[in-house]
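Before the break, one more example. Copy the sequence into your notebook; we will annotate it together after we see the structure.
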Amino acid sequence: MLGEKLMVDQIITAQKLIDADKDADRLNTAVNGSKTDNVTTRSGSEYPSLANAVYQIMQTGGFEPFSTEKELLASKPTLPKKAAKAMDTKKVWLWIQHAGESSPSWHDTGLSELDQAKQYVDLKLKNNALESLFDFNDSEQNTVARILSDGDIETAKFGKLSNLPKSTLDQAKQYVDFKTKSLDENSSQSLFDFRDKDESIVAQLLENGDLNLAALDGKGVAQFIKLLLSVSADSSEDSSIFKLHDVEGNLVFDFTNDGDVIFGGGRSLKALAHKESNSVIGIPSSYELLTDDFNSLISSYRNLSHISDLPIPTGLCSQKFKISNKAEFLSLKISQAERIKIDTPYYQDDHVVHPFLCNFYKTFRGFKHLLLLTPYRDTKDYYENPCVYGSNDLVNFELLSDMPQPLYERYPGSYNYNSDNFGVYDHTTGEFCVCWRNGATASGFSLWMSRTSDGINWTEREAITPISSELLLSPNILFNPLLNKWVMYSISNDVIHESFDGNKFNYRLSDSLYGPWSEPVFIDAPFTSWHQETRYCGNQFITIINDQRITGQLFLGISDDGFSWQFSEVGMLEGEHLNTYKASIVPNVTEDSVHFDIFWTSSNVATGDNLWQLFHAKTQLIQIEGV
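Here is what the structure looks like once it is written out:
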């Protein structure tokens, strides 16, 4: 009977099965529910799901890991207190509301492993009696020397200075005494002595403005100034108050009378402050010094009271280098460039022609470069008058203000026009001259010139050649000190002897800029010639000539003496290009290499938007060597 009773008591009723099914659903929610789910029992009690419980633990003080500090700081807990850790920085953050805050936010506890290590190192350094006041580190941040808190100096090589043997200190003292002996002998000339702690003179500022240095055996910098006597290399001479040179004679600092400081290879302090400066804009290398013949020639004129302080344009005097491989120069290439927009006195974004570029070591009215151009709107020659532009980047060009623009217009009355402008440096006066051609094919052509000593005031025009039936296309004039003569290069026809048809490259000689000029000596070239420009490149001569009639190309030439020439047989423009007209070429030295700025215009073979447009390209570098 007892067994029968137990079996009756264990019978599962239908209600129990119903309740068990409900409990199974609640168990599933408790185990698998989200962090927002809660479970309500049959008795009415409410409990969080497992995920919800873990989440609440995290929110009420448990640590929650975040992969990055950024993710941590972007999170916002729903409960008032929480700690979290960023795994990228190892920092522990606490979500709490500090006094003065309107709401809680994340606060760095500063207890990361890295912070603790820093605290340990700082503590060790603070308690170290020989704490370093200043460390000198190499490029890999290894400490090679330290100034210690007790006044001692410690180096990686010799240890502490206080621990050096007395014999070593005696030798060092003898060396200093020897190095400063020569300065002591000059003490009567010294305006101010710089002494070390042992009262030994280490530098002297002398009455003549020189600076003697013990490290240079007391020779100072005076002997190096002779290396920089050339006008191009020392273009700030007239505006310099004091200069400092290194042991090689290179200009390190130049203090100018307009308050500027030139340093770091030619950088201007005023220029860095975006102020206009008339100081040096580049300190040249030894390659760029003027050759001795030009240097002595120009120096002999510097004693004249009327001498100008305008700088010499590069490429108009010879310098102490030469192109190492002439074939490399003749093989230089450029590509068709984007056109440069130019405003003229007549039109904005105008047509222009006959570029002549001048670069300087010293700014000309605040510009590094001058560009001479003649407007040529729709090929109408009454616009073809010389204009002067300034630029500091060879991209943007500004008409010089406070001077006539154009510099001169054609004569009134009978038909004539100006064209073919070019620049000349007159070493006898230090003036910069703008020249141009005037005339007409039927009546002949003459050359004219206007001078300036300040870039603002220009002289009345003067004739430098009488009118001639020769074309005198694109002339320019250089002085040759070896001959002591002026040399005019141009493209012209032979109307005197009628020995050939067409035009050829040629030169003429004169003792004066005003002539008389010799008959032209014509030079054969492997291309037809139309316009040219000849410059110095070091102690050599270079020319760029365009062939408008057949190839539309630009060709190069090079000469050691300016009279016997080698020419390129292939044009220098690669790829698709417009027909070229007159071009300008200027050398730019960089260490032991030179590249060339080429300016040119399209010709009237082009039409529409491509008519008489200005272009600029730089060639690749080629090797040079000193002479």
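Residues 1-8, 179-188, 222-238, 274-281 have pLDDT under 50 and may be disordered. The longest strand covers residues 352-364. Try to locate both features in your own notes.
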